[in-house]
Design goal:
Beta-galactosidase, Chain A, domain 5; 20% strand; 2 domains; Glycosyltransferase; globular
Amino acid sequence: MIEMPESNPRPRREIGDHGMIGNQETAALVARDGTVDFLCWPRLDSPSVFAALLDPDHGGAFELWPDLEGARAVQIYLPDTNVLMTRWLSAEGCAEVVDLMPHPDEGDATARRLIRRLRVTKGRVAFHLRCRPRFDYARETPACRRAGQGALFQGRDIALRLDGSVPIEAAEGEGRADLVLDTHEEAWFVLGEADAPASSGEEVRAVTDRTAAAWRSWARRSTYRGRWREHVTRSALVLKLLTSAEHGSVAAAATFGLPEAEGGVRNWDYRATWIRDASFTVYAFMRLGYLEEAERFRRWVGRCMITSGDQDPLRVVYALAGGEVAREEELSHLAGYGGARPVRIGNAAGHQRQLDIYGELLDSVYLSNKYGSAISRQGWSHIREIVEHVRAHWREADAGIWEVRGEAQEFLHSRLMCWVALDRAARLARKRSLPAPVVEWEAERDRIAENIWDEFRHPQHGYFVRARGSTELDGALLMMPLVRFVSATDPVWLSTLVAIRNHLSDDGLILRYRAEDGLPGQEGAFSTCTFWYAECLARAGRLDEAQLVMERGLRHANHLGLFSEEWSALGEPLGNFPQALTHLAFVSAAFFLDRQLSDPTGQVWQP
């Protein structure tokens, strides 16, 4: 029998032992043992209703498990969909549960549901269900009572109803059911809004079929036909799940509070949209043929441009609906994943100064205009304001791309992206014949370039360094050839690439940095930097090395092809999960490396 204890302590499930399902409004993580242990409701950035991943005893979970001695649990996605199947296999019997949220095309009334379809494929199997939501980040245990054949969970500000094909018993703070199914028999359970229409077996089957068909139809729109196609398709499906159907924004990850180091304090909330991801998002969607998604994201960014931060013309990070991200708050009542505390929601990075965001924004605007629709007059007016802000402030120190909480520095990556901002704005003005002081912009761009070459080099070795006056390296330096600041075969860049390999590589995976950052403890290898490194190798013509790095990175995806933010020294997933930026970096590296492997002497599409 698979043991699921009735009392504390409950088992901790690993970050990587999960699949993600969702409806482009929110998302749930389903563990390999069939437990839904992370879900925010009704939106991704709403308070959690299940958070056992962060606190197995008190966070709340939706548990479903069979009585099968020595059963092996496996997970797969139905091909080219975001419909997840968890299977239990044993000599005694076999069973499976299909988990999904209806595709957003189903409409609000039906899409906001968590559907679990249970089926026995061999033998006669007994099952147990325990649904114990804990509202408001586990600060509230809802009252539970019977509602017809199901159970109603009533809180102060939210009410959910659990329906099923079998009677559900209402207990203190949880709904319970025990059932036995024979071969080919099915049962279903639906968790949704308290006032939603009652479900039926016929409807559950129909919604499952339509949702699978809708995801397959979307996946077929991809124009990518190269190497690693299955992984690229999965990355696209992950990115689509993290995309708001209502707003077009893309969340950095589905979760909050998952640690970058075992037991550490680097536990952030990634349920928001970072401007620095903008150009990566537009690039990835366009390269895969998803022009509509790229355009919707561009429009969302455009709406952000007409708002302002406290002092700067652009915020670092935005709520998924636009506007200011929630203030950072510590949830001291949660135990934290593996004891990693404090668990945080909201993000103080929203009030940091990060000069790199202007380059990433302007790069996305440039890409959208080059391969999509032209910028509006109002949009160009805001771009001009941003460029003038960059001209006035590019020499200043900031918190940098990694949002360090120590002393502000003059980071090379921030300076680089200020160069990108001016370069892309000047290019766009010339391409579209837009009114602008282009000559002055280009002159300022060139001054930034000279400043980087003169003041951001190692005093003895000559390679590029993390910050002005520093001798440290940084994974963000890998962006230099990717944004076409320096040739991928320039001798100074090649020496930088060697230095990154020698000093930031951990068994072939790339760390962000080794320098002090104002926080105690260390972190794992940064998955995004690993794929940036692979692309840099490919651009330098070192295709064999690039392929090896790609394969190493891919081997650190989980059993479903999902990437976490970081990896431990043992290759275990760390940080928030799944992370959009990693999937974006993987898509970019896969596209470039595949083209180079197919035709090493040919022309490759460039931004």
